[in-house]
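re: that chain from earlier
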Amino acid sequence: MDVMNLMWKPIIGLTILLLGLALVGPVSALTIDSVKPCDKKGNYKEIFLTNEIVYVEIKTSGSGSKTVHIYVVENKNWRKGDKLEDVSGGYEEFMSNAPGSYIVTVWKGNLKVGEYDIIVDEDLDGEYDPGEKGHILGVVAGFFVIPEFPLGSLMAIIIYFGALAGLATKRLRFKH
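^ sequence. v structure.
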């Protein structure tokens, strides 16, 4: 066996390995690019009724896997270290191992009227960190829950006031 041949094989192998890594480039970790409240089809939505389901669309890129906690919290001016207190019955755990767009249910039924933010806790510590993603619009809430006004009740109110107006008009005509 040739001594030179034995000596060059490892060097050639290492060179090929390093060249392959250089061609592939660095691998980027999976990241959360955006978070937004939406309907079950992914259409942006910021106003929900108390009997609806709140979904969020999470867009990711990169490679690898990532697990995060999604919190629905009351709207406020967030500061580093603020405790995340989920109002929907507990945070949702979301795990992704591929880039893409995902729809996640974050609040089912019994929604309370108010203004809310969605915060994605990327380091899983249960506290707000300014670098974490979420749907927070400063002083304005990420989404709103408004009371349900059944059409029947609304129509009854309109008819009632319409009848009062008609009655008042008739009385004015009969006085003259």
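Helices lie at 3-24, 151-175.
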